[in-house]
Amino acid sequence: MATYAIGDIQGCYEPFLRLLERIHFDPASDRLWLVGDLVNRGPCSLDVLRFLVEHRHAIHAVLGNHDIYALARVFGVTPPTDDETIASFVAAPDRDALVAWLLTCPLLFEADGHAMVHAGLLPAWDFATARREARNVEAALTADPVGLLDAYFNRKRNAWSLSLAGIDRAVAALSVFTRIRFVDGDGRFVSGSGPAEAPPVAGAIPWFKAPRGSSGTPILFGHWASLGLWIEGDVLALDSGCVWNGSLTAVRIADRAVFAVPNRREGD
């Protein structure tokens, strides 16, 4: 039995299947941890979701920002964008079963001395705080998905404030779990992307480079294709940009062995 953590799939079904072949995945005994962004931008989001639901007994996945977007589309909260690739999922006859499974996926998963999120945590959060905030958002998403998703897409807050309450607090926490990359010198969320050495504003640093309350427990995450595969100490960043013609990467938890396949087969 082995456990593998896999980076952002984003609808890249064929590379995902090749990666499972590469690691000799056996759903009867092995386990997959998926860092979110299961769907969108790649060509086969519906196939990915159907596979995950079929093998859900062997899979733990956290929600990423593209998964949140897919839920918002299903619930009619936001219109389609020009670059989305989830129309077949939105119109699928088995959509409700797929959505029901997505809604069971947490924002923070913890097992075997490791933690997994899609994007990251605020530096000030220890795991007790992160766990509390994650459960609060998950409860809101289950109880009133339309209300939370509407607030997220219409009142999104990129700066965390502990003074927030209710749905605004849930929206802020959801933004952290699914979108954070950089923080400022005070550990506050800084919106933006780019490589770790090129922050969007002067003085910003990757969230995991700041002094952290979560230090000491290995944390797996994705979301940051321009960062690429990054394994250093208690940080394991697994988004190697498959959807951008990079590779899809798996790390075996027991020994941190790395397995990867390119987006396209040689000669395609």
Indicate the mean pLDDT.
Answer: 94
Tell me the series of helices and strands, N- to C-terminal. EHEHEHHHEEHHHEEEEEEEE
CATH superfamily: Metallo-dependent phosphatases
The low-confidence parts are: none
CATH class: Alpha Beta
Which strands sit side by side, in order, in the main sheet? 3-2-1-12-13
Q: Hey, roughly how much beta strand do the residues contain? A: 15-25%
> How many distinct folded domains?
1
What general form does the structure show?
globular
CATH fold name, please?
Purple Acid Phosphatase, chain A, domain 2
- CATH architecture grouping: 4-Layer Sandwich
Distance between the termini: 33 Å
Provide a short characterization of the protein structure.
Helices cover 31% and strands 16% of the residues. With 268 residues, it is α/β, with parallel strands linked by helices.
Textual characterization of the structure:
With 268 residues, this protein is an alpha/beta fold. The chain has helices at 13-22, 45-54, 65-74, 87-90, 95-102, 127-143, 145-154, 166-179; strands spanning 3-6, 31-34, 59-61, 109-111, 114-116, 182-183, 189-190, 205-206, 219-221, 230-232, 235-237, 247-252, 258-262. It has one domain (3-262): Purple Acid Phosphatase, chain A, domain 2 (4-Layer Sandwich). The protein is 31% helix and 16% strand. Strands 3-2-1-12-13 form a five-stranded mixed sheet, with helices on one face. A five-stranded mixed sheet has the order 4-5-9-11-10, with no helix packed on it. It starts with a strand and ends in a 6-residue tail after the last strand. 44% of the residues are buried.
